[in-house]
Specification:
Layout: H1 2-27, H2 50-59, H3 67-96, H4 106-127, H5 132-157, H6 171-193, H7 216-219, H8 237-266, H9 272-294, H10 299-325
Helix pairs in contact: 1-3, 1-5, 1-10, 3-4, 4-5, 5-6, 5-10, 6-8, 6-10, 8-9, 9-10
């Protein structure tokens, strides 16, 4: 079972990398760097597809295809494919050693199912030309994979609960904090996939107002093309503003729920380190969100904001695991 645990840790670390790479691909407009799937113009590497990429560049030099974008997209696919193989190995070993593992193989099998669906979403992301609903679903699937791998890692490693007092009163706060972050991740994905991160370029105001003019219906219509409303017209600035503003507004809820949880944990014997870590990650996320607006979304900072969300989610999963495993 030592191999089983090593595979879980490797998959967990790789998932963080895949989430960050996915954000990098999306934010650098490389999502259609290879306009087919799973290869690049039917080839295993962009180098082998260079003739097709050159043709696409000659036809449309400002289009979505370039050598650099093709490599970004394919490296992300290589990492995601490797993650799929690791999760397959985890599922196989969990079934093979189901009598000595610390839980049933249901969770690894569920993880494998999510990975398969993630592959389909990756294909549809390309074939459906970056529809926001599909791209956001792909992001949520990646974060779900991360959360389940963290839970599996904790289950197999065994919780360290020595020195902890009764923590049952904290369970509700743990769930609320986790739910708040999960909702914010979905909203953040919707901002990113609709390219609405700079719809408000000032902070804390938006267009110089606390409540700017917004159009909510086209903003949150799920089934539509990228940059379009349901009628096929260009998405208005007011709709993009609504997407951005709601993400900002929910950040206040995240600050409240996660902040209260962090303070409670700091005063809890055996969990004070997790409280301090949660507080640091929360403040870093808020700081990066504000800085992304003030600095006009520098790529490195935007990717770090996505990675920070993944780390915040993972930390809350660990905390909830410990809280619910405490008798």
């Amino acid at each position: 079972m030592n191999l089983y645990r090593k595979l879980i840790i490797a998959a967990l670390l790789l998932t963080v990398g895949v989430v960050a790479l996915g954000a990098y691909v999306r934010l650098s407009d490389a999502g259609l760097g290879c306009p087919d799937w799973p290869g690049c113009y039917g080839k295993i590497t962009p180098h082998l597809a260079s003739e097709h990429i050159d043709e696409a560049l000659a036809q449309n030099p400002e289009g979505p295809v370039s050598h650099a974008k093709a490599w970004k997209e394919m490296v992300h696919r290589y990492f995601a494919g490797t993650l799929g193989l690791l999760v397959l190995g985890i599922a196989i070993l969990s079934i093979k050693h189901r009598f000595v593992a610390k839980g049933s193989p249901a969770l690894p099998i569920a993880l494998l199912s999510i990975i398969v669906f993630q592959a389909l979403l990756g294909m549809w992301t390309v074939t459906e030309l970056l529809k926001p609903f599909i791209v956001t679903g792909h992001l949520v699937g990646g974060m779900t994979t991360l959360a389940l791998l963290v839970w599996l890692w904790q289950r197999e490693s065994g919780p360290s609960l020595s020195g902890m007092a009764d923590v049952r009163a904290l369970r509700l706060w743990g769930v609320l904090a986790l739910a708040a972050v999960a909702v914010q991740i979905v909203l953040g994905g919707w901002v990113s996939t609709n390219y609405a991160a700079l719809a408000c370029q000032d902070f804390p105001l938006c267009h110089g107002e606390w409540v700017p003019e917004m159009h909510f219906e086209p903003a949150f219509t799920l089934h539509r093309e990228l940059g379009m409303d349901a009628s096929g017209n260009f998405l208005s600035l007011q709709a993009l503003t609504a997407i951005h503003w709601v993400h900002r507004l929910w950040a206040i809820g995240v600050l409240a729920f996660v902040g209260i949880m962090a303070v409670k944990l700091v005063h809890q014997r055996g969990l004070c380190v997790f409280g301090a870590l949660l507080g640091v990650l929360l403040l870093a996320q808020i700081g990066m969100g504000v800085a992304n607006v003030w600095l006009s979304l520098p790529l490195a900072l935007a990717v770090a904001h996505n990675a920070g969300a993944a780390l915040l989610l993972a930390t809350l999963v660990v905390i909830n695991f410990k809280l619910f495993r405490m008798r």
